[in-house]
Design brief:
156 residues, alpha+beta, GMP Synthetase, Chain A, domain 3, SH3 type barrels, 2 domains, 3-stranded mixed beta sheet, 40% strand
């Protein structure tokens, strides 16, 4: 099974359960690492997640994955908080984290640049507003974003 397809199937399986526990599924990663294949789920909730939250979701999702038999070889399941560099995936994320420092990478260069860093100013329609360190407000079409995440160390 190709990577994107597996990630989507895991997302579709895990998200309803995580939501039912009052948490949010932030990201799913599937990659080969030194110790073997790793399926990593990042969860969040207001006030942050605890170790107990991660253990609970790991047990529930692990049982679901075993029952559905989606992955046919050994792997490690990890569930954790997204941390300080939390990814932003959904449009709601760009509203919710307005005022925070972010890094946005585009799918294709725009005016010679693919990477933009600055203060997130929210979402207007289909455009993400970003204030750069130079004070310029850049409008980035949501569909052009390859990835975005919170970035704690930008100086203004």
């Amino acid at each position: 099974m190709e990577k994107e397809s597996l990630i989507q199937k895991v997302w579709d399986l895990a998200e309803p359960v995580i939501l039912s526990k009052g948490m949010e599924l932030v990201e799913v990663e599937w990659q080969r690492e030194r110790q073997g294949w790793v399926l990593r789920l990042y969860i969040d909730k207001p006030g942050g997640v605890t170790l107990g939250d991660c253990v609970k979701i790991s047990e529930i999702v692990g049982d679901l994955l075993d029952a559905k038999d989606l992955i046919h070889h050994s792997y490690h399941l990890e569930v954790s908080s997204p941390g300080l560099d939390r990814p932003l995936r959904k449009k709601e994320d760009f509203k919710r984290f307005a005022g925070d420092k972010v890094k946005i990478t585009l799918k294709a260069p725009r005016e010679g640049r693919k990477n933009f860093t600055g203060l997130l100013r929210g979402l207007e329609g289909e455009e993400v507003l970003l204030e750069t360190v130079e004070g310029e407000v850049v409008r980035i079409p949501y569909q052009e974003i390859k990835k975005a995440h919170l970035k704690g160390e930008i100086e203004f």
